[in-house]
Specification:
This protein has helices at about 25-30, 45-55, 85-100, 110-120, 125-130, 155-160, 220-230, and strands at about 5-10, 10, 20, 35-40, 60, 105-110, 125, 145-150, 165-170, 175, 185-190, 195-200, 205-210. The protein has about 230 residues and is α/β, with parallel strands linked by helices. It has a single domain (about 5-230), classed as Class I glutamine amidotransferase (GATase) domain (Rossmann fold, 3-Layer(aba) Sandwich), CATH 3.40.50. It has a nine-stranded mixed sheet with strand order 4-1-5-6-13-12-11-8-9, sandwiched between helices. A two-stranded antiparallel ribbon has the order 2-3. A two-stranded antiparallel sheet has the order 7-10. A hairpin with a 5-residue loop joins strand 11 and strand 12 (about 195-200). The longest helix is centred in the middle third of the chain and has 16 residues, at about 85-100.
């Protein structure tokens, strides 16, 4: 039987009928990897989140807006756009319980930043105004940039993509600052910004700062979803 892969939804309600959604390329990437996608709307009850997780085999934490900086003890930067408060509650429950249950997890962009914060880490709230990088990680017009990342040998990421250098897309204005407890950065851009995180002694966790679901025509990026589906069997 094909493994069922949960995908957390984004959520919007400002000026419109409230709705949960996710971009189709996430589910398409799961289907192409012989998994079955199952979308998760906002759920704020512990038991309901746990029951959902019992019914899936693996989990994708999708991209989105920003983790509220109050979660890591910082004031909000003027360029920080927080996820909706209901999504913040739902996502934090989902991450905490999923790790308790040892679910295989692929975390993407905001999803990777969320995991870092849940594990006690912090974030750079805006790369461009921080002065730490000359690389454009996100254009104001949302143009998708591509830049290389260097991958640590013997890392899970290296085993999945089978290369030390990978061209990745880049649409993030935030980045990991202090790593969460137990997390290891296993890929970086030349400016030193962490582009991938892993957890030692965990069945399967891969967090990436880019959006592989938008680059699945490249076998290296498609391999991330295949690895998740395989780990979820």
């Amino acid at each position: 039987m094909k493994p069922i892969i949960g995908i957390n939804c984004d959520y919007e309600e400002e000026g419109k009928q409230p709705y949960s959604f996710t971009y189709r390329n996430y589910s398409d990437a799961v289907i192409a990897s012989c998994g079955i996608p199952l979308l998760l709307p906002i759920i704020k009850d512990d038991d309901d989140v746990r029951n959902f997780l019992k019914r899936i085999d693996g989990l994708i934490l999708t991209g989105g807006n920003d983790v509220p900086p109050q979660r890591y003890g910082k004031d909000q930067h003027k360029k920080t756009i927080c996820v909706h408060p209901d999504k913040d509650i739902s996502d934090n429950l989902l991450v905490n319980i999923a790790f308790q249950m040892k679910k295989p997890i692929l975390a993407i962009c905001y999803g990777a930043q969320l995991v870092n914060v849940v594990f006690g880490g912090s974030l750079i709230q805006d790369i461009s105004s921080s002065g730490i990088s000359c690389i454009v990680h996100k254009d104001l017009r949302n143009k998708q940039y591509v830049h290389p990342v260097t991958i640590e040998k013997n890392s899970l990421l290296h085993k999945i993509v089978r290369t030390e250098y990978l061209e990745t897309n880049s649409v993030h204005h935030q980045a990991i600052d202090k790593l969460g407890k137990g997390l290891v950065a296993t890929a970086h851009t030349e400016d030193g910004i962490a582009e991938a995180i892993e957890i030692e002694d965990y069945p399967f966790f891969m967090g990436v700062q880019w959006h592989p679901e938008r680059m699945t025509a490249d076998p290296c990026h498609a391999a991330l979803f295949s690895a998740l589906v395989t780990a979820s069997k």
